[in-house]
Amino acid sequence: MRVVSRKPGEKCISRRAWSTIATAAERRNKEEESEEEPKLKYERLSNGVTEILQKDAASCMTVHDKFLALGTHYGKVYLLDVQGNITQKFDVSPVKINQISLDESGEHMGVCSEDGKVQVFGLYSGEEFHETFDCPIKIIAVHPQYVRSSCKQFVTGGKKLLLFERSWMSRWKSSVLHEGEGNIRSVKWRGHLIAWANNMGVKIFDITSKQRITNVPRDDISLRPDMYPCSLCWKDNVTLIIGWGTSVKICSVKERHASEMRDLPSRYVEIVSQFETEFYISGLAPLCDQLVVLSYVKEVSEKTEREYCARPRLDIIQPLAETCEEISSDALTVRGFQENECRDYHLEYSEGESLFYIVSPRDVVVAKERDQDDHIDWLLEKKKYEEALMAAEISQRNIKRHKILDIGLAYINHLVEKGDYDIAARKCQKILGKNAALWEYEVYKFKEIGQLKAISPYLPRGDPVLKPLIYEMILHEFLESDYEGFATLIREWPGDLYNNSVIVQAVRDHLKKDSQNRTLLKTLAELYTYDKNYGNALEIYLTLRHKDVFQLIHKHNLFSSIKDKIVLLMDFDSEKAVDMLLDNEDKISIKKVVEELEDRPELQHVYLHKLFKRDHHKGQRYHEKQISLYAEYDRPNLLPFLRDSTHCPLEKALEICQQRNFVEETVYLLSRMGNSRSALKMIMEELHDVDKAIEFAKEQDDGELWEDLILYSIDKPPFITGLLNNIGTHVDPILLIHRIKEGMEIPNLRDSLVKILQDYNLQILLREGCKKILVADSLSLLKKMHRTQMKGVLVDEENICESCLSPILPSDAAKPFSVVIFHCRHMFHKECLPVPSMASPAQFCNICSAKHRGPGSAILEMKK
Question: Any idea where the RING-type domain is (predicted)?
Answer without folding.
Answer: 801-849
